[in-house]
From TrEMBL:
Superkingdom per UniProt: Bacteria
Protein name in UniProt: Transcriptional regulator with PAS, ATPase and Fis domain
Pfam families documented for this protein: AAA_lid_14, HTH_8, Sigma54_activat
InterPro entries in the record: AAA+_ATPase (IPR003593), AAA_lid_NorR (IPR058031), Homeodomain-like_sf (IPR009057), HTH_Fis (IPR002197), P-loop_NTPase (IPR027417), Sigma_54_int (IPR002078), Sigma_54_int_dom_ATP-bd_1 (IPR025662), Sigma_54_int_dom_ATP-bd_2 (IPR025943)
GO molecular function per UniProt: ATP binding; sequence-specific DNA binding
Residue span(s) of domain Sigma-54 factor interaction: 312-541
SUPFAM superfamilies: Homeodomain-like, P-loop containing nucleoside triphosphate hydrolases
Keywords per UniProt: ATP-binding, DNA-binding, Nucleotide-binding, Transcription, Transcription regulation
Lineage, highest ranks first: Bacteria, Bacillati, Bacillota, Clostridia, Peptostreptococcales
BP terms from Gene Ontology: regulation of DNA-templated transcription
Length: 611
């Protein structure tokens, strides 16, 4: 068993804030880092005594978002510094130097609207003999106030109201803003309304919080609710989530502690979030390097080049098999059939097979379910002038001619009418086409890549797809598994799509928070890669900052089951849905494959809304 003294030693010798809360919601241990980063104690790099702002004191402000985490600072409080500009609004960036409660002395200030600048904004002055400067660097999220060469620098995550007060009588530094100011009611708005401030000195560093109620030192918030939920057994481990502690964001982990012979409790691990974006970027870069290394090794083992099929992202055994088959297909001109659910990336893979094997030659994509049955022949083979009513006088080149010397990609080939299938078969056999209205043969050299999400074998059995055509196109089959069956590829896919979309839309590169990643990684993605792409595009469009949180993600309930019953129901629905698709909604075939009765099948179809 680990003793309390051992735990306390570990807590005080780690680089993270650590708090232990017992069953009665009292703090039993709290290391120094936790006290400092939450503002329970103050880093005494700038010592000063307790007091309050008095008439004649010089107040310097660097506020990146007026009214937010600055004690609700507004024009009413700024009037005490002789700032009466009614153009200053909430959310403005404000730099100001002024004398408290002296209408005769002019203040100096600068305000910027809507945070659009990505370059540092500053103000400087020799103000009554004091060399004063204040700056806000929104790119690096830093505010700094310097008085006679002595800086007070505060990094921020969302907003901050950095403040320094100079004693109007002695000229000494009277107050320096420090993190945790909100819980001490030392925000600049509070100070300008007459609230006092505590002393900041070395003697205050060892405040004992043992035995204090958690809510005496931490605001009631989502963090306290979930921590108490863990104490009561309603919550399990919560990893790397963002919480506000005393008006500031932190990355926290909540770990329930169960030990025989001791009261149950919870460890709260706290990490500052001001540099969260940098941490996420570093984390992503490290994971990507590891993934890339594993990808190169797996490609070497399978025997295809590192640069092959990079756009088909993944390193799972399933993804590697697809890429290996695609590489082999690119090295010859056999006809290829690509199968897989909707949204798995069949069109993209077809294009990559073509580009890698025969770059610079035509690639013509035909969506077979978008062509009216009466137009199939003229679209595929073209026509001569006057061939039918409405035909162009000059005629029209068909898809086969356009693809001559290259690849014709027939997407959703199962939707081609039977009467066209026979003509397509002859073209594949003879390499000759005839335009509609012409008896002149045109020799072609076209490689066919077909794709479908239907079960062509079943369609052959049902007489809706020609068997001889099926054998002709099924020379080299490649099946793309659904994304739910290769979830180890999700992390790579998410980052690949994120980078591509940000580049396409000319956006600054964004990162996903830990909870957003967890939400995506735990989802089954029934819509496959297409659903993932749409979800990411929507999220980064909604997100105004560089961090995409779970709240920006609009993900369905499928794949998010928590209980065993929910997970079993989800798997049952997926199995039946897959079987229905495989057998083209032939219920008798589904019953035989799954060995269930007609009554059971119809009950399940109704329960899950499967048609």
């Amino acid at each position: 068993m680990v003793s309390s003294s051992q735990i306390e030693f570990i807590m005080n010798n780690m680089n993270l804030g650590l708090v232990y809360v017992d069953k009665s919601r009292r703090i039993q241990m709290c290391n120094q880092i936790a006290k400092e980063i939450t503002g329970i104690v103050v880093d005494a790099h700038n010592n000063h005594g307790s007091g309050k702002i008095e008439d004649g004191d010089i107040v310097v402000i660097a506020d990146n978002k007026l009214g937010d985490d600055d004690g609700e600072l507004s024009l009413d409080e700024l009037k005490s510094l002789n700032i009466n500009d009614k153009q200053i609004k909430d959310d403005d960036m404000l730099l100001a130097i002024g004398v408290y409660n002296n209408e005769k002395i002019q203040s100096q200030y600068k305000y910027i609207r809507e945070h659009q600048l990505r370059v540092p904004v500053s103000i400087s002055s020799n103000y009554f003999g004091f060399n004063i400067s204040a700056s806000i660097d929104t790119a690096n999220k830093v505010t700094e106030i310097t008085v006679n060469g002595q800086p007070n620098r505060i990094e921020y995550y969302s907003s901050v109201g950095n403040t320094v007060v100079i004693d109007g009588k002695t000229g000494s530094i009277k107050f320096v803003q420090a993190r945790g100011y909100s819980v001490r009611h030392e925000a600049v708005g509070d100070l300008l309304r007459g609230h006092g401030f505590i002393a900041k000195d070395v003697e205050r560093k060892d405040i004992d919080v043992t035995g204090k109620m958690f809510l005496e030192l931490f605001d009631k918030s989502k963090l306290s609710d979930e921590l108490f939920g863990a104490l009561d057994g309603r919550e399990t481990i919560i990893n790397n989530s963002i919480y506000e502690i005393n008006k500031r964001p932190f990355v926290c982990t909540i770990v329930p502690w169960r030990e025989e012979g001791a009261d149950d409790g919870v460890f709260l691990i706290i990490q500052e979030a001001e540099n969260l974006e940098k941490l996420m970027i570093a984390r992503n870069e490290i994971i990507e390097q590891m993934e890339d290394g594993q990808l190169r090794e797996s490609q070497k083992e399978l025997g295809f080049p590192e640069d092959a099929f990079k756009s088909f992202v993944g390193r799972s055994p399933q993804a590697n098999e697809v890429k290996y088959l695609a590489y082999k297909a690119s090295q010859n001109k056999f006809n290829v059939i690509i199968t897989g659910e909707s949204g798995t990336g069949k069109s993209q893979l077809a294009k990559e097979i073509h580009d890698y094997g025969t770059p610079g030659t035509p690639f013509i994509e035909v969506n077979c379910n978008a062509i009216a049955p009466s137009l199939f022949e003229s679209e595929l083979f073209g026509y001569v002038g006057g061939a039918f009513t409405g035909a162009k006088n000059e005629g029209k080149t068909g898809f086969f001619e356009a693809a001559n010397g290259g690849t014709l990609f027939l997407d959703e080939i199962g939707d081609i009418p039977l009467e066209i299938q026979v003509k397509l078969l002859h073209v594949l056999q003879d390499k000759i086409i005839y335009r509609v209205g012409s008896s002149k043969p045109i020799r072609i050299n076209v490689r066919i890549i077909a794709a479908t999400n239907q079960n062509l074998e079943l369609m052959v059995a049902n007489g809706t797809f020609r068997q001889d055509l099926y054998y002709r196109i099924n020379v080299f089959p490649i099946d793309i598994p659904p994304l739910g069956e290769r979830k180890s590829d999700l992390y790579l896919l998410i980052n690949h799509i994120l980078k591509r979309v940000c580049n396409e839309y000319g956006m600054e590169m964004k990162q996903f928070s830990g909870d957003a990643l967890n939400k995506m990684l735990s989802y089954n993605w029934p819509g496959n890669v297409r659903e993932l792409e749409n979800t990411i595009e929507r999220a980064i469009t909604l997100c105004e900052s560089n961090i995409v949180y779970s709240e920006h993600l609009r993900i369905g309930t499928a794949g998010t089951a928590n209980t065993l019953k929910e997970m079993l129901a989800e798997d049952e629905k997926r199995i039946i849905d897959t079987s229905m698709m495989k057998h083209n909604s032939n219920k008798q075939a589904v019953m035989e494959e799954l060995d269930i009765s007609r009554t059971v099948l119809y009950e399940k179809l109704k329960k899950y809304g499967i048609k």
